[in-house]
């Protein structure tokens, strides 16, 4: 029997905080498929050309983790340098808005990185399960 989301009722749908809503829980019938689809959304579109990443979702998760981590670092660098780099080109209230954008986007990216870590860990656990 399946619930409204399409998960088998026998599978626990408990997932840790930060688990992405787009990915079925580990142990669910389509966990790996939904993880693959979600991870492909996080990396550059060109990554879709590489069959190895579809065959080994844990490899894709690793690449997604590095990609999102780089985005977190880029947002941090942008935040730190915005006042100096935008001085004279953007009015002070505009710079404050840019900084607020970095704050919001930075928080989203950090949460996303945590979600990628959770999915990667679940994929690794699946690979090592007997």
Automatic annotation (TrEMBL):
Protein known as: Uncharacterized protein
Organism annotation: Actinomadura macrotermitis
């Amino acid at each position: 029997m399946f619930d409204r989301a399409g998960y088998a009722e026998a599978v626990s749908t408990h997932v840790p905080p930060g688990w992405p809503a787009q990915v079925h829980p580990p142990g669910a019938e389509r966990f790996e498929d939904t993880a693959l689809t979600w991870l492909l959304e996080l990396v550059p579109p060109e990554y879709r050309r590489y069959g190895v990443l579809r065959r080994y979702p844990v490899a894709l998760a690793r690449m997604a983790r590095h990609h999102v981590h780089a985005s977190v670092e880029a947002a941090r660098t942008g935040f730190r340098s915005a006042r100096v780099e935008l001085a004279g080109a953007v009015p002070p209230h505009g710079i404050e808005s840019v900084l607020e954008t970095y704050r919001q986007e930075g928080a989203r990216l950090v949460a996303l990185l945590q979600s990628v870590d959770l999915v990667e860990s679940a994929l690794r656990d699946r690979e090592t399960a007997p």
